[in-house]
Amino acid sequence: MDQFAALATFVRVVEAGSLSAAARALPSSLTAVSRQVAALERHFGTRLLHRTTRRLALTDDGHLLYERAKAILAELREVEATFSAGQQEPSGRLRVSAPTLIGRLLIAPMLAEFLRRYPSLSVDLQLVDRSIDMLEEGIHLALRIGELPDSELIARKLGDIQMIVCACPSYLERSGVPQTPHQLGAHDCCVFSETPGIGEWRFLEDASSECKIQISARLWVNSLEALVLAAKEGAGLVRVPSWQVAGELATGRLRRVLQDYEPPPAPLYLLSQSSTLASPKSRAFADYLAALWRKDNLFAARADVAAIS
After folding, report:
1. Could you tell me which residues are beta bridge partners of residue 241?
2. If 305 and its partner were Cys, which of 35, 80, 139, 161 is the partner (CB 3.0–4.6 Å)?
């Protein structure tokens, strides 16, 4: 069995919605298409499709194979295009995943120059605040915050990132400046969360240990930008990425507190699959991103990018 040909046929069957429609599109005979799908099922030892006289549906294993087959075939087409062109100019579609805030405020503004530099490339930027399966979702590169579990992914560190607590001067004059994290219970706090309840902010207890402070907030918002706006108007203390409020800190509209208790910064990584990083488009984006941040000293200039934890 030619596995690449069989995978291509399987993908076409799923996208066409039936064996007969796939046979017409390829073009091929219905018998040949059926044999290739059956050969894949024998090879993997599992049923891939539920077939009836009226409809065709993927099994769970079939859905997994479909997503991965699409990614494999896309990479193969890119390699073929590169070799046929006789050069290593980045081309094709690059899928990048990033946390929503970092992606929208830091990554998106960098893309215009990147696209001008590589006119044969297109970028699909996915902004998600969840863990993703890069292989299953067809993601070439992903930005991820914090220490990484052991995996086969290749990680390139972009920088160290930090969280801070701050409030506007009028609030601090009215309610006082907290001197330790344990005094937060007496303060109005604004917490980032998708689900209101009890928040938790991490701080250093001393040089070698951390403490977690439960925050019974008066304001819960699922947008850090909205939290900053509320804090600037005196709603209370807020824990946010320090780069996001660098301008407000510089002008005095917000004041940083509990700085001596801030936890260690978290690393920001650019992740890729080993096979993906070898492609010209992935290398170009990874090098562009790292060089731009080094050149502009972005983390330092914006008082460190910070994780949402």
Report:
1. 163
2. 161
Starting at the earlier edge strand, list the strands of the sheet with 266-272: 121-127, 92-98, 141-145, 266-272, 154-161
Q: Tens digits of per-residue pLDDT, 134-193?
A: 877 888 899 988 877 766 778 888 887 788 999 999 999 999 999 999 999 999 999 988
Closest CA to 270 of 166, 139, 165: 139
3-state secondary structure of 251: helix
d(C-alpha 66, C-alpha 51), whole Å: 16
DSSP-derived letter for residue 136 is T
Q: Give the count of domains, the chain.
A: 3
Q: Is the full-model pTM beyond 0.70?
A: no
Residue with tokens 């990018």: 305
Helix or strand or coil: residue 213?
strand
Domain boundary among 62, 83, 104: 83
Residues constituting the chain? 309
Please return the burial class of 5, using the count of CB atoms within 10 Å of its CB with bins 0-12, 13-18 and 19+.
exposed
State residue 133's pLDDT score.
Answer: 79
Q: How much is the mean pLDDT over the chain?
A: 82
Which domain does 275 fall in, by range? 90-152+268-301
Q: Do residues 59 and 46 touch, judged by C-beta distance below 8 A?
A: yes
Q: Which of 265, 186, 192, 182 is nearest to 224 (CA)?
A: 192
Q: What is the pLDDT of residues 219-252, one digit of tens each?
A: 998 888 899 999 999 999 999 888 888 889 999 9
> Is residue 272 classed exposed, middle or buried when 0-12, 13-18 and 19+ CB atoms within 10 A define those classes?
buried
Are residues 143 and 98 in contact, defined by beta-carbon separation less than 8 angstroms? yes
Instruction: Please tell me the chain's helix, strand, coil percentages from 3-state DSSP, rounded to the nearest 5.
Output: 45, 25, 30
Can you give the CATH number for the domain in which 294 is found? 3.40.190.10
Q: What angle do CA 63, 67, 71 make, to 5 degrees?
A: 165
Tokens, residue 201: 């902010």
